[in-house]
Amino acid sequence: MKQIITAIGNPNLNEILKRENNLKIMSDDIQYKEGILEFLELNKNIDFIILSELIPGNLEIKELIQKIKLINNNIQIILFLENKNEELENYLYAKGINFIFYNNQIEINQIIEILKTDQKSSNNELKQEIDELKKLVLEKNKKNNLIFSKIKNNFLNKFIFKTKNLNIKNNSELICVSGTSGAGKSIFTVNLAKALENNKILIIDFDVLNNSLHTILGVKKYSSKIKNKIKKNNLLKEIQIEDLIIKINSKIDLIAGINLLFDSKYKISSVKIKNILAKLKEKYEVIIIDTSSECFFDYTREIMKLCNLNIFITEANLIEIKKAKSLLNIYVNEWEINQKNFNILFNKYNNNSINFSILKHIFSGFNILGKLSNDSKYDLIINKNLKNNLDKKMQKEYSQIYQNLYKKV
Question: Of 15, 96, 184, 325, which is least surrounded by CB within 10 A?
Answer without folding.
Answer: 15
